Amino acid sequence: MALNVNVNSDFSMQEVSDVIRSALALDERLAKHKKARYYDLCKDFETKYKMSSDIFMQKFESGDLDDLDDYFDWYAAKKGLDHWNKKLNILSGISL
Predict the structure, then answer these.
(1) Tens of pLDDT along 32-52?
(2) Where are the domains of the chain?
């Protein structure tokens, strides 16, 4: 897929490209950090409850689990992990 960038300024394409590369690199570092943090949270819950996060999500979303606060925290952590993993995959596939 191609992406067009329109720049309404007097900056050179090299300057614009450098800024975009820098922004993407920063976003990738943030995504890696967030993914690792949510991964650790999920692993802690998996160890505590002896269940994978994927199985937990199936049971949670089907209503098969109690309303423990931990379960809501785990749900949020898994959603966060999935979000940052997706974002990192997108960022990893971008080349300029």
Answers:
(1) 999 999 999 999 999 999 999
(2) 31-92
